């Protein structure tokens, strides 16, 4: 009674009873929290959050929801003002806000957002998202990888964006420029987060939770896409997050000024007081091992990002004062580093890595597309060279105009096959031999030509 009376001038109330039936159709509602009691008809929804204009700090946000005709207790929503893109990398019209809360299926909401002075936050909104139900919500991860102890550690099974139902049209919501993914230079390290959500969700709810989070990040917070690069549920399933290619160094919106040259893995749930399940920790280790091993990064090393020295595998709270990723998960980071190191075999030993060291990383730059299988072998794309390997050819690289031409042919699976030499000078030009032909640069025509056949 005291809580309700004290918050009444600041509360939005949506108490109209609506038949509580799960909806197959997605919906999105933003209702102003304007400091007076408001009554609004509320369709069934699955996720709730509160937002306000960027720049307002020290906000206390609370909600309670109506489920099955009864009101839950008031619950504080975590406010994470350091999630999201760097301020220098604006994605749409950004708004500050809480972490979204999954409520499953609710028909009413009461919410408040007050400043540290006890006054209503001007321009605050409560966001209600119904992600709908898809026939694919019960599907398991796509067969895009395998789990083993091979070197480098392979891509684990993953629920793709297509499989969890990402509406790719949503990426133009904050402008056409958002439709094109942005990439950073390389992968140096990873940040572990928790979504600060509930821990009692079911297997079939997770895809809907990810869709709702995607809508919240884009429509409510003003970002270009889902903020995290990867998500892991309590059952150990890995979900592809931000678009742009899971294998590539996609610039995420997870740790503000530390997004460049890192990737964010969010475990779905709240781990302030709850220990993350073993399956969740193991899958988190697997996605970390895959990305770090492909880019030749040791989980036991330290790196430097935005002028700060950090572990290769860090928690969000290592960058600022925040509860994320929760005390119980943060305490597991040491175990995660050890487990990742074990999965990676403790060292880098691939022929491509050894060849890259021979060429010199100062000469070829850092990995952009980490080591990955091609149709006929393996490849790593560095800043200035692409290095290929197969048992039949050994390691060789392409560079400059030859790299550009070979990529256009379908590098790694072209009719030419893999390179069997480096490019070398001959009278009148430069040539490079491949398994089933040559690339030739002739000074007279000043372009790279493709010649098929073994003799030249």
- Helical content, roughly? 10-25%
Structural class from helices and strands? Answer: alpha+beta
Can you identify the CATH superfamily of the largest domain?
Answer: Peptidoglycan recognition protein-like
Q: How many E strands? A: 26
How much strand content do the residues show?
Answer: 25-35%
Apparent shape: elongated
Count up the helices: 9
Please name the CATH topology of the largest domain: Lysozyme-like
Overview of this protein structure:
With 456 residues, the protein is α+β, with helices and mostly antiparallel strands. The chain folds into three domains: 2-130, no CATH class; 135-343, Peptidoglycan recognition protein-like (Lysozyme-like), CATH 3.40.80.10; 351-452, no CATH class. It contains nine helices and 26 strands. The chain has helices at residues 2-7, 161-164, 206-220, 278-294, 327-330, 333-343, 351-359, 361-364, 400-410; strands at 12-14, 27-33, 38-39, 45-53, 60-67, 70-71, 75-76, 95-97, 101-106, 108-114, 124-130, 189-194, 230-232, 238-240, 262-267, 302-305, 308-311, 313-315, 367-373, 378-382, 385-389, 396-399, 424-426, 429-434, 437-442, 447-452. The strands form six sheets. Strands 1, 3, 5, 6, 7 and 10 form a six-stranded mixed sheet that branches. Strands 2, 4, 8, 9 and 11 form a five-stranded antiparallel sheet that branches. Strand 23 (424-426) and strand 24 form a beta hairpin. Helix 4 packs across helix 6 (333-343). It is elongated, with a radius of gyration of 25 Å. This is LGFP repeat-containing protein. Residues 156-320 form the Peptidoglycan recognition protein family domain. Pfam families: Amidase_2. InterPro entries: Amidase/PGRP_sf, Amidase_domain, PGRP, PGRP_domain_met/bac. Belongs to the N-acetylmuramoyl-L-alanine amidase 2 family.
């Amino acid at each position: 009674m005291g809580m309700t009376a004290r918050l009444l001038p600041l509360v939005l109330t949506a108490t109209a009873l609506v038949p509580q039936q799960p909806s197959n159709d997605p919906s999105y509602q933003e209702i102003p929290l304007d400091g007076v009691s408001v009554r609004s008809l509320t369709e069934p929804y699955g996720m709730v959050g509160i937002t306000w204009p960027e720049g307002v700090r020290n906000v206390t946000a609370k909600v309670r929801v109506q489920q099955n005709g009864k009101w839950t207790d008031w619950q504080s929503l975590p406010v994470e003002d350091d999630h999201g893109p760097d301020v220098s990398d604006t994605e749409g019209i950004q708004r500050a806000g809480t972490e979204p809360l999954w409520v499953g299926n609710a028909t009413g909401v009461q919410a408040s957002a007050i400043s540290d002075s006890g006054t209503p936050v001007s321009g605050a909104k409560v966001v209600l998202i119904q992600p709908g139900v898809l026939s694919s919500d019960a599907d398991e991860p796509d067969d895009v990888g395998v789990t083993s102890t091979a070197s480098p550690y392979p891509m684990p099974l993953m629920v793709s964006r297509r499989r969890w139902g990402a509406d790719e049209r949503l990426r133009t919501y904050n402008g056409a420029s958002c439709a094109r993914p942005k990439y950073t230079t390389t992968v140096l390290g990873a940040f572990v987060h928790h979504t600060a959500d509930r821990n009692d969700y079911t297997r079939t709810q997770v895809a809907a939770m990810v869709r709702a989070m995607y809508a919240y990040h884009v429509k409510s917070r003003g970002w270009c896409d889902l903020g995290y690069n990867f998500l892991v549920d309590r059952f150990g399933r890995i979900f592809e997050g931000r678009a742009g290619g899971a294998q590539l160094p996609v610039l995420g919106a997870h740790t503000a000024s530390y997004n460049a040259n890192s990737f964010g893995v969010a475990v779905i749930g709240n781990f302030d007081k709850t220990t993350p399940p073993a399956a969740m920790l193991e899958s988190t280790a697997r996605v970390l091992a895959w990305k770090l091993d492909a880019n030749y990064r040791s989980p036991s090393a330290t790196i430097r990002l935005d002028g700060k020295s950090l572990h290769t595998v860090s928690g969000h709270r290592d960058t600022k004062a925040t509860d994320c990723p929760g005390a119980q998960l943060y305490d597991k980071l040491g175990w995660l580093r050890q487990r990742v190191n074990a999965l990676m075999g403790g060292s880098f030993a691939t022929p491509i890595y050894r060849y890259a060291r021979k060429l010199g990383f100062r000469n070829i730059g850092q990995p952009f597309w980490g080591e990955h299988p091609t149709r006929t072998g393996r490849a790593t794309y560095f800043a200035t060279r692409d290095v290929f390997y197969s048992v039949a050819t050994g390691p060789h690289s392409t560079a400059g105009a030859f790299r550009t031409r070979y990529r256009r042919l379908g590098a790694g699976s072209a009719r030419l096959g893999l390179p069997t030499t480096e490019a070398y000078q001959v009278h009148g030009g430069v040539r490079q031999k491949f398994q089933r032909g040559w690339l030739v640069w002739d000074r007279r025509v000043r372009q790279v030509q493709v010649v098929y056949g073994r003799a030249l």
